[in-house]
Design a protein that fits this description.
Blueprint: E1 2-9, H1 15-28, E2 34-42, E3 45-50, E4 53-56, E5 63-65, E6 71-73, E7 76-79, H2 90-98, E8 102-103, H3 107-114, H4 116-124, E9 133-137, H5 144-151, E10 155-159, E11 169-171, H6 177-185, E12 190-195, E13 200-209, E14 212-223, H7 230-234, E15 238-241, H8 248-264, E16 270-278, E17 281-288, H9 298-305, H10 310-325
Parallel strand pairs: 1-2, 1-7, 7-8
Antiparallel strand pairs: 2-3, 3-4, 5-6, 9-12, 10-11, 10-12, 13-14, 13-16, 14-15, 16-17
Length: 327
């Protein structure tokens, strides 16, 4: 059996969500094919949960030693960290340099898709519709009145370089804009202010196996909150409809666009693209290379709708990645 370390945790506010996602994946992997275990990442190091022991993993040769003296070497890494240092491509860059095979998009793809502003501007260059936006750099000069005049109210204010659901605000009045920007900067080093799109929110998963790239059924999101924030995502304060209650034509267009974005960003493994449909026009909100995969998450709902078991899903992805790496 191949030793698989599922890297989770990380440095962002979504540490615990990442652990839930990783455990969900671990619980469904076939035990007779993969010797899989969690590797929790925090600012003190990497720590494997292995047969009741917690053991520090060497970043040099990706091994750890049990109390019995047995040495385990990670042969395949699965990066499932929401935020820094996984979703933003840092671990992938290190693994690429050290030639450790991994499951997730490449460092370049992850870093580009992770930054909401850069990703949307990149896609805009290929004719993909995105919301009007304004980028603010840390310690730079900006004028909230001019931002308000450009984008109008309400608007969204988000940390652009953070995979977290924290720090996102929907701002209705100019007097609240500065506080929203400050909250976003608490989660990231750049902030994007984005024009509000009023319409139907839809998301679509996509993945690659040996047979090609496959879009999953679309999910429509109706949030009980003012928007699809942390509580709506993870605390059940949203209604999620799979398949989405949109026309077959729109569904097909979104699935085709999702596959195109997957290709343009040179993504691998699993991805998810979030959209807003306004008067029949499809706008990209953001791209996720490490979408949530806990029981409350959207992709497992899409898989259930497509009648794909979670174990089968990840096994197909793993087998494709192993062929690419020759392991």
């Amino acid at each position: 059996m191949i030793n698989v370390g599922i890297f989770c945790g990380g440095y962002s506010s979504e540490f615990e969500i990442s652990i839930k996602s990783a455990n969900m994946i671990l619980d469904h992997l076939p035990k007779d094919e993969y010797n899989a275990f969690l590797v929790r990442v925090n600012e003190k190091g990497w720590f494997a949960d292995y047969k009741g022991e917690t053991l520090e993993v060497s970043p040099i040769d990706f091994s750890f030693v049990l109390e019995s003296g047995e040495r385990i070497v990670i042969e395949l890494a699965h990066v499932y960290i929401h935020g820094d240092p996984g979703e933003n491509g840092k671990l992938q860059a290190y693994f690429e340099m050290k030639k450790l095979p991994f499951v997730n998009s490449s460092a370049l793809s992850s870093e580009l898709s992770f930054d909401k502003w850069f990703c949307n501007q990149f896609l805009k260059g290929f004719g993909v519709e995105v919301a009007e936006s304004y980028l603010i750099l840390k310690n730079s000069h900006y004028n909230t009145e001019l931002i308000g005049e450009k984008l109008g109210f309400p608007m969204f204010v988000k940390p652009a370089d953070s995979g977290s659901s924290y720090g996102i605000s929907k701002v209705y009045e100019l007097e609240d804009l500065q506080n929203a920007i400050d909250e976003a900067f608490a989660e990231g080093n750049t902030v994007v202010c984005e024009a509000f799109l009023k319409g139907t929110e839809v998301t679509c998963g996509v993945y690659r196996n040996s047979e090609g790239i496959h879009p999953l059924p679309c999910t429509e999101i109706i949030s009980e909150s003012d928007f699809f924030d942390y509580e709506a995502k993870y605390l059940g304060k949203s209604k999620e409809i799979t398949p989405a209650g949109i026309s077959e034509k729109l569904t097909s267009q979104i699935q085709e666009l999702t596959v195109l974005i997957y290709q343009l960003l040179q993504m691998r493994s699993l991805g998810r693209v979030d959209y807003m449909i306004v008067d029949g026009k499809i706008y990209v909100i953001e791209v996720n290379t490490t979408p949530g995969f806990s029981k409350e998450s959207l992709v497992p709902q899409m898989l259930d709708c497509a009648d794909i078991s979670i174990g089968e899903f990840w096994t197909e992805i793993y087998e494709f990645e192993r062929k690419q790496f020759g392991i």
